[in-house]
Amino acid sequence: MSAPHPRDKRTPDGRGVPDGTRAPDGTPALLDVRELTVRHTGHGRRALPVLAVDRVSFAVQPGETLALVGESGSGKTSSAMAVLMLRRPESGSVRFLGRELTTLDEPELRTLRPALQPVFQDPYGSLSPRLRVRDAIAEPLRVQGRWDPLTGPARVAELLELVGLDAPLASRLPHELSGGQCQRVGIARALACEPKLLVLDEPVSALDPSVRAGVMNLLTELQKDLGIGQLLISHDLALVRHVAHRVAVMRRGRIVESGTVEEVYAAPAHPYTRELLSAVSHAPPNS
Ligand SMILES: Nc1ncnc2c1ncn2[C@@H]1O[C@H](COP(=O)(O)OP(=O)(O)OP(=O)(O)O)[C@@H](O)[C@H]1O
């Protein structure tokens, strides 16, 4: 048997240990996920349950982007949905802002949800077709009871500017926007809640390649300015290399390797990571 790679932090049973659960100064992580297991009940009479996520551990610090990468079906979205508590995990722990989310009921979760915001893949599907941009951005504030008719419109204008959209767009409906503009509105909605963590599930993969970099750069800039943590789900390893700080590689519901982007891309320890990365270096630009 070959000697273990120096960066191989896996336990002998191959389950892996939490990576980055503490900041260099010792403060606990913003998000600390341990031994997360998600099982989907199959559809139909004879369908078998699917073990989508199998005892996965990872952590995100404030101001940091952790990317979960891996091929289709590896369990990335199931992990994200469990972190968001939109799908209850079968077992494991999800600590966010020091609270254990898995033991909270829905009213308790509601108080934490503003701090934990998703941005999904489909920019049009994430917005109500009947809400004008200004109302779409105001909606989360109204839902949280934080809408002030005196200051609210200025806050909406500020959020539009923050995501790089011109003020006249405020009166448009989603179908009058491009995909990139729509995704920026989705990001503004998420920011309205003043989140501590964004869960970005393939946030640019449905967009035209020409606008992807602009939206990703926006997310990176916002993170720098606002200190938001990001859990980025992506199958695009070229993009991850540019925007993430750390990366966890998922395969068949497990994390097979994790580390800083520099470490993993320069010297992948796991054969599966090497396979994924070799496809990137042969991919045409902008794919
Ligand atoms: N609602 C569901 N019901 C049953 N099985 C599901 C459900 N959602 C996902 N799965 C299964 O769970 C496994 C993990 O899927 P998941 O969507 O989490 O992976 P993924 O890495 O995000 O893939 P993709 O990149 O294609 O979205 C797959 O086998 C998938 O078929």
From TrEMBL:
Disordered: annotated segments: 1-28
UniProt superkingdom: Bacteria
GO BP of this protein: transmembrane transport
Domain ABC transporter: 33-277
UniProt xrefs under Pfam families: ABC_tran
CDD domains reported for this sequence: ABC_NikE_OppD_transporters
UniProt xrefs under InterPro entries: AAA+_ATPase, ABC_transp_ATP-bind, ABC_transporter-like_ATP-bd, ABC_transporter-like_CS, P-loop_NTPase
Keywords: ATP-binding, Nucleotide-binding, Transport
Protein name: ABC transporter
Phylogenetic classification of the source organism: Bacteria, Bacillati, Actinomycetota, Actinomycetes, Kitasatosporales
